[in-house]
Amino acid sequence: MAAENRGLWLALAGIAVLLAATLAAYRPPAPRGPDAPNGEFSAHRATAILEDLVGNGVPHPVGSPAGAQVREAILKRLTAMGYSSELQSGLVCAGGACGSPINIVATLSPVSRDDEAVLLAAHYDSVPAGPGASDDGAGVATVLEIARILAARPPPRHPVVVLLSDGEEAGLLGASLFVHEHRLAKQVRAAVNLEARGTSGPSFMFETGAANTWLMGLYASAIARPVTNSLYYVVYKQLPNDTDFTVFKSAGMQGFNFAFIGNVGRYHTPLDNVANADAGSIQQQGDGALKVLTALANAPTLRPPLAESVFFDALTLRLIAWPAAYTVPAALLAILLLLAEARMLVRRNATNTRAVVWGAVGTLGMLVSGVALCAALLAVAVAVGKVPPLGGSSWIAQPLPMHIAAASIALLAAGAAGAWLARRAGFWGFWVATSLLGALLSVAAAAAAPGASFPLLLTSIAFALGALPHLGLMRSRVPPRWTTDLAALLPCLVFFAAVLPLMRFLYAALGSLAWPLSTLVLCLGTATLLPLLAAATMRARRGVLAAAASLALAGALVASSLPTYSADWPERINLEYWFDADTGRSHYLALCDSRRLPAALAAAAHFDPVPHPRFAGSSAPAFYADAPNLALAAPQLSLTSAPVRVAQPASAPGSTASLTHFELYLRSARGAPEAIVVFPAGAHVTDLELSAPAGTVRAKLSKLAGRATLIDFVSLPAAGVQFSIDAVGRSPLAVQVFDQSYDFPAGLSLRRARPPNAVSSQDGDITVVHRTVSLEPAADR
Ligand SMILES: [Zn+2]
Hints:
Layout: H1 6-25, H2 43-54, H3 65-80, E1 84-89, E2 92-94, E3 97-99, E4 102-107, E5 117-123, H4 133-151, E6 160-165, H5 173-181, E7 188-198, E8 203-208, H6 212-222, H7 230-238, H8 244-250, E9 254-262, H9 279-297, E10 309-312, E11 320-323, H10 327-347, H11 353-383, H12 400-448, H13 454-466, H14 468-474, H15 481-510, H16 514-526, H17 530-535, H18 538-561, E12 571-580, E13 585-592, H19 599-604, E14 612-613, E15 621-626, E16 636-639, E17 644-645, E18 659-667, E19 674-679, E20 687-692, E21 695-700, E22 702-703, E23 709-713, E24 721-728, E25 733-741, E26 758-759, E27 766-775
Parallel strand pairs: 3-23, 5-6, 5-7, 7-9, 12-26, 12-27
Antiparallel strand pairs: 1-4, 2-3, 4-6, 8-9, 10-11, 12-13, 13-15, 14-15, 16-18, 17-18, 18-24, 19-23, 19-25, 20-21, 20-24, 22-23, 25-27
Helix pairs in contact: 1-15, 2-4, 2-9, 4-9, 5-8, 10-12, 10-13, 11-12, 11-16, 12-13, 12-16, 12-18, 13-15, 15-16
């Protein structure tokens, strides 16, 4: 091996070792069997509970008869273990939805008024499309297995309250009801919440309460193999998902939110069944939850100081954490040190300004071209239908070739910049440019999102420290080769050690958007190879370039030859039957993640090949086909009293507009469990007041594209609901009303045409009856 290539080969070998270590470190542990000691969490015992609760495979959304059965089975188990349980029910509105969840709240012994308590929570409802064995049946089974262990222990310092919430999937309804109306909620200071996104994968502790310095201290001492970092939460906040923990957190509770993520293709589909629930994931989640719950319940105080930390798990070996407030000063210190080192390098003629400028051109050029190339590859893959459009669920059955292509492009970009500018920038020209650029980004990241800044900060520090031997020896003699190797190797290996665990789960979290994003992040890593590429022989540089180009090309070609979906990782296709009571016509709607209509469906009905919005104001595109007419009763939306003019609040839009107060009654004539009401944009209906036995409940409506507003009533009572709105305008209000049942008309055969590599998801296949109701505003006086 030529001495000048040693650094480059060591770096590439080091990255490979770190990748293997990352893949090994984050595998869930082996599940513990039926013979595990009674005081320990056993996934075998939890899975037996899961089988009992949801083994029949029946979906059990809020308000459903199947939901009542699951609730009964949970209550029976809690009672048998000596818990006293109560059912908390009530009408609640949250996140644009209103419904009546029924929570299970259980305690081992009465909680006295001056106790501070810790909550252990999971939701027992599922989406209408699937049985929710992992989301969140596994969470419920884990809570019950932990409850058994707690019942056999001496009572902790702070009592544990068990909450099995309802209506999470419909909009965190049960958690909102608990937090706002349950007498114990005010005494709960911290919560441990259990969730799942998919049916397998490692259990992450991905979100904490606001006092996370204190919380991470508890976590580090309780958990032997940490799986967490402060960057996950930054990513999670960008996702449209929420969990019950959002509600607990906004009520000021501390605590931990756990979820496993893996096989995301099964999330919220019929494939989220007991057979697919991974026992290793349940074991890891159960162990983690039991340990942090025990730590919280025995903590000297549950009123910790509010301070934030930056933290990560160092390949699950140990938790490394520091106060978030140190991040900006540390990043500034690193950049100052690097500037001093750069000055010294220029003074001693190791490099010059011109070389550094070429180094910067190469570094920026490789970042831009790498990301552009990967984005172009993704755009082509979407255009030819190999990858579903972004925005929906954009996962594919076999992503590995695209992972390889995205990663190889990062190496290709570095190889190209290295080959092009090796002589002009040289080792130290690249080194100074890359280290300073990384340090600048590190300062920006530290200021914008400290939790996400640790990979860049650690890399900047590694750059500064790695060059010290070379600079030290440079004073007296020509420094040996290993000192230049070290100056580039140290930051390279530190960067990849920090980011590979993040890259490992980025695709599961984000879908295909993860590829250009990974290329960007990996380009920051391969930029640290630029000095080593410049120092290497031309033959070595060409070898790296050729290998990276071949791998990227092979990845893209293999990806293009594989089917997008499989029976194991199916496309999400929902089939809907709509009866339009205004026109008396019926339609089939097919909602396909790929935005392409499968041939089997196209052959089964005369679908319009161009998708249209699902209803006026909706952004979900659907394929329409005429359907046989079934005489279904239309939902009822009627006035319960004459509309009246109301005084204009000062803040109302358009102070000259007239405002009418409507009292309304809504009911599904065919007993559908869900109804949706859409108000036109001009009416400016932003909230409504719902009549409940205990008083009125206010609800914020969700906004649709084009500023129309929507309210979703789930678990709609057979007797209907009464509510009131204030609407702007003098012309009649065209209000869209539709009720939906989670079934497809039995006599119609369209569902049989759904291909075997597709499943329904979320609300599943539904029957909808749609009508428009015109509301006449009160006349001017
Ligand atoms: Zn869930």
